[in-house]
């Protein structure tokens, strides 16, 4: 039987996992369907959902991997080209190109052996090749299966998902309606205002909008101070809301719906341009759609607009086409995994990056994979410690909100509070010694 672990996907999660496993002496093989590393940040490839103007939402200070800082000449919020360069430099620095099989797509993952001597997993590739591994880490991301809205009526124009929008030429001079108020939807509404003839943003509810910069620095750096000072989450909500109210103002004063929830109870919208665009009339805000006839869209408030392109920024379904979905996901769409990463029963099946934090996902994936590697090593050299963690993970899903009561919607089934989740991972890693 093989002693090698298969890591599916050579994006940020896969690269960090391969590095951490390798540093603990575990054999790994990265399986990547594209011709180079980068995953979602490999612009223009089928695996990527970024568009030409995409920048990071979290700052480089809070996003960079701990043992490989981003270049000093990078701006606080790097462009996707810079992010891709960083990831490829990371792969070269840690020798990950040598353990990667490119243009290798996974068709099926199945349990091959589970007995007293451990478990092994069988991976079937797109070319029909079947390989057996000591374990599998799924690091292929969850932004690949678009979630489409139900459009009432028949639209005669073009309908695109945010994942398929790449360049301004797709909307230039067009009357554009964006559906969805997440970070992608707000970015697309601003993009449509710059390149289309009309930009409308359809929102079913109100959201809190956070600026990328506060007091001259990236907003997310303040979270590090809160964490260091052990400020409780309820007080963080109040302090942040107060600062944003002073610096930016309430969304409804710009013409946006009033939020129906407290700050952080939905995934934060980090955007400094949307409020400006709405305030100047470049982006017009509309409620939910009531009906569509031809290119005529009627909204629930009775207003009607002629639209050429509908951009759906409505998120993604969490799917793993190469694996029995019941292994990882519950019927309600939430992960049935401890810390969203560890299978309750299988000790050699992991998922890296199946989270949606209120911050950068990269440092959390780094700690996830360190913990995975420590657990694997304990299975070989410290059975007592491995049994302790095995019992811990057997309880499955854990509360990852750090005191925040997230909105009960499919969109927030993967939500975690960045600092509370990171503390939990660090504590567990240190418990292995």
TrEMBL record:
This is Putative oxidoreductase CzcO. Belongs to the FMO family. It comes from the Bacteria. Keywords: FAD, Flavoprotein, NADP, Oxidoreductase. One of its GO terms (molecular function) is flavin adenine dinucleotide binding. InterPro entries: FAD/NAD-bd_sf (IPR036188), Flavin_mOase (IPR000960), Flavin_mOase-like (IPR020946), FMO-like (IPR050346), NAD(P)-bd_dom_sf (IPR036291). The keyword Flavoprotein applies. Its EC number is 1.-.-.-. The keyword Thylakoid does not apply.
């Amino acid at each position: 039987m093989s002693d090698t672990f298969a890591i599916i996907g050579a994006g940020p999660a896969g690269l960090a996992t391969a590095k951490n496993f390798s540093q603990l002496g575990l054999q790994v093989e990265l399986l990547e369907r594209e011709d180079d590393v980068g995953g979602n940040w490999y612009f223009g490839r089928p695996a990527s959902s970024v568009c030409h103007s995409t920048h990071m939402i979290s700052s480089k200070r809070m996003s960079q991997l701990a043992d490989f800082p981003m270049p000093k000449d990078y701006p606080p919020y790097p462009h996707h080209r810079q992010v891709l360069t960083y990831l490829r430099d990371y792969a070269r620095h840690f020798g990950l190109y040598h353990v990667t099989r490119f243009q290798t797509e996974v068709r099926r993952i199945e349990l091959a052996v589970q007995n007293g001597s451990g478990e092994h997993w069988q991976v079937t590739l797109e070319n029909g090749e079947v390989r057996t591994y000591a374990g599998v880490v799924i690091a292929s991301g969850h932004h690949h299966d678009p979630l489409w809205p139900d459009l009432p009526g028949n639209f005669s124009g073009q309908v695109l998902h945010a994942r398929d929008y790449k360049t301004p030429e797709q909307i230039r001079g067009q009357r554009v309606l964006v559906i969805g108020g997440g970070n992608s939807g707000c970015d697309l509404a601003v993009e449509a205002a710059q390149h289309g003839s009309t930009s409308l943003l359809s929102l079913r509810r109100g959201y809190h909008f956070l600026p990328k910069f506060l007091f001259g620095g990236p907003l997310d750096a303040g979270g590090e101070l809160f964490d260091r000072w052990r400020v409780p989450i309820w007080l963080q909500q109040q302090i942040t809301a107060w600062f944003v109210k002073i610096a930016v103002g309430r969304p409804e004063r710009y013409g946006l719906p009033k939020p129906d929830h407290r700050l952080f109870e939905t995934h934060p919208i980090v955007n400094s341009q949307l409020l400006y665009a709405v305030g100047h009339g470049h982006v017009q805000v509309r409620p939910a759609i009531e009906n569509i006839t031809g290119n005529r869209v009627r909204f629930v408030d009775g207003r009607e607009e002629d639209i050429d392109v509908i951009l759906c920024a409505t998120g993604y379904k969490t799917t793993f086409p190469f694996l029995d979905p019941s292994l990882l996901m519950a019927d309600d769409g939430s992960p049935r995994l401890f810390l969203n990463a560890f299978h309750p029963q299988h000790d050699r099946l992991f998922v890296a990056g199946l989270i949606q934090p209120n911050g950068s996902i990269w440092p959390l994936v780094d700690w996830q994979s360190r913990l995975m590697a420590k657990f694997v090593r304990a299975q070989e050299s410290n059975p007592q410690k491995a049994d302790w963690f095995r019992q811990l993970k057997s309880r499955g899903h854990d509360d990852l909100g750090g005191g925040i009561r997230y909105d009960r919607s499919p969109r927030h089934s993967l939500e975690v509070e960045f600092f509370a989740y990171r503390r939990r991972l660090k504590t567990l890693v240190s418990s292995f010694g």
